[in-house]
Amino acid sequence: MTVVLGVDTLTYHCRLDSGEVSVEDVLTECAGLGFGYVQLNVVHLRDRTLADLARLRGTAADLGLSLHLAGEQLGYAFKGEPVAAAVDRVRAWTDRALALGSPLLRVSSGFYRHNLPDPAAIAAERSYVVDALGAGAEAITGSGVTLLLENHSDFTLDEYAGIIEAVGPGQVGVFLDIINPVSTLSDPVPVIRRLLPWAPAGHVKDYRFESMYVEGGYHRRGFQVHWCYPGEGVAPLAQLLAEVAGGHTGDVYHLSIEGLDSRRRVPDQRERLRASLAVLRGLLPRRDAQR
After folding, report:
1. Per the count of CB atoms within 10 A, which of 12, 61, 135, 269 is most buried?
2. How far is the C-alpha of 15 from the C-alpha of 19, rounded, in Å?
3. Looking at residues 266-284, what average pLDDT do you find?
4. 185/128 Cα distance (integer angstroms)
C-alpha cells in the first residue's frame, strides 16, 4: 500500500482568503516541497468557473500534482433545512470535482457536538446526514465521484459507523481525520480501526494543550486544545500512522496535512510543511512513505 502525502488548502486559508496568495501559488509551493496532491476546499474556489477549474487541473498536472475536492457542510437540521438543499450542494460540488479531476468529494455535517448537547438534537442531525448522504449519493450515481463523510467534531464512533451502514458502504465512504476524535474526547485508535475500511483518504494534523491559569497562576481553570502541524504537538503520530499503514487494504491511501493554524500576513506554511513532511516520511514504513 502506498500513502500519497498531500496538503489541504485550509493550511493557507487566511492568506488565500485575504488574497495574499492564489490557489496557483499554493500548488506551486506544494509541488516544490514534494507533495503528491492538494486537496482544494470549495470556499477557495468560490470565484472560479468550471472552465477555470479545468485550467487549474492542467496547471496541477504540469506540476505533477493531482487534485481532490473538499465540499462544505451538507446542511443543518437544527436550522430546518430540507434534504433537497443538501442534494443541490452535492450536485454543484460534484460538477466542480469533475472539472478538477477529483475522484473524491469530502463533506461533513453542519454542527459541532458541543453546540448541541441535547441528545434529541444530535439524533436529528444524524438522521439528516443519513438522508442527505443517501439522496446525494443517488443524485450523482454514475459520475465517478465518491462521497466521503469526514469524522468531524460531531458524532461518536458508533454514530459514524451507523451512518455509513445506514446509507450503505457501497454508496459512500469515510474521510478519516486521525486527530479529530480528540474533539469528542475519544481515543483515535478505535476510530481508525473501525472507520479505516471505508476510507480511501483523510487528514493528519497534531495538537497541543495550552493551560488557562487563574490570576496569579496558582492553579489553572482549564486548558485549550490547539491544532498544529504534524510534529509540533503531542499526538501519538507514530502509533496512529502505523494503524493506517498496517490496516488499510487498498493499494493507495491519500493523506493530507491540515494545517489549521494560519494567519494573515504570516507566510510560515513552507517551512512548517517541509518539517511536517519529513516527520511523516520518517514515521511511515519505508515502503509506504511515498510522495
Report:
1. 12
2. 6
3. 97
4. 23
